[in-house]
Structure to design on (274 residues):
């Protein structure tokens, strides 16, 4: 390990470390790609895969992302896009929680679903996909349903939780557990041409306010359905919120709800705090 930093400095090209040199480092020094990435970033050398990030995200910010952990609860329409975008962004550890397997009706919108994956666990498909696109990222697949009983354990060590669920009841439970473990929650929901995004900080009652009139059952997505484009957009907005939270930059949607109407191509923000 003592020679790894020297190797990285010598092999960097204009403060960028090419992929082939990262692979060579793992073979020469018996380390993981994650270790290579961290050593490079600590020395302000950027793995070349992130070079299009650097005008928006500094090298020190990239190191912060690498050292962060995000829990994504749900790995379906929203969750698949969220997980992939977090991995491509360079978040170093992603915990993905979902009890389900792929079914045929998932094929229209869920990023990790393919005919070959039907009947396979969603979290295992996520793990394989992320290993293919960014093997420096550690993805922890948890094939289980989130609940108040296991929630604190699932979120332990995470910096942010992300809601990619389709159950209002479980969303509210996730909000409570996130507050209990003192981490922010980025919430997103979709239905047909519509969606919304909000961020709840510990101690806020954001989700309780949004769903104050809910009584029982799932949301309107059951009747409106979900085409392919709605989850992709809302997931991207959620990932943008996560990135701001991890870096402590920008203005999060705290106390606000971003409403999205793709049919009319309109977006507007509602203040949730009276």
């Amino acid at each position: 390990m003592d020679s790894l930093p020297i190797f990285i400095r010598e092999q960097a090209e204009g403060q960028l470390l090419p992929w082939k040199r990262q692979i060579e480092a793992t073979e020469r020094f018996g380390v993981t790609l994650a270790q290579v990435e961290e050593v490079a970033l600590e020395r302000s050398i950027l793995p070349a895969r992130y070079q299009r990030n650097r005008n928006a995200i500094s090298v020190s910010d990239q190191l912060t992302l690498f050292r962060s952990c995000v829990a994504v609860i749900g790995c379906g329409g929203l969750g698949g896009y969220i997980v992939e975008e977090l991995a491509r962004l360079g978040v170093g550890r992603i915990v993905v929680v979902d009890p389900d397997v792929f079914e045929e009706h998932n094929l229209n919108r869920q990023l990790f679903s393919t005919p070959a994956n039907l009947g396979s666990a969603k979290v295992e498909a996520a793990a394989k996909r992320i290993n293919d696109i960014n093997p420096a990222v550690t993805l922890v697949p948890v094939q289980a349903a989130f609940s108040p009983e296991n929630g604190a354990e699932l979120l332990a060590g995470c910096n942010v939780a992300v809601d990619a669920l389709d159950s209002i009841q479980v969303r509210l439970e996730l909000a409570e557990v996130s507050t209990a473990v003192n981490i922010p929650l980025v919430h997103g929901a979709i239905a047909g041409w519509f969606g919304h995004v909000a961020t709840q900080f510990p101690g806020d009652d954001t989700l309780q306010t949004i769903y104050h009139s809910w009584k029982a059952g799932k949301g309107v997505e059951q009747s409106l359905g979900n085409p392919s484009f709605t989850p992709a957009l809302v997931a991207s907005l959620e990932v943008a919120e996560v990135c701001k939270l991890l870096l402590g930059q920008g203005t999060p949607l705290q106390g606000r709800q971003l409403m999205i109407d793709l049919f009319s191509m309109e977006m507007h923000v509602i203040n949730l705090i009276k």
Summary: Residues 4-50 form one domain.
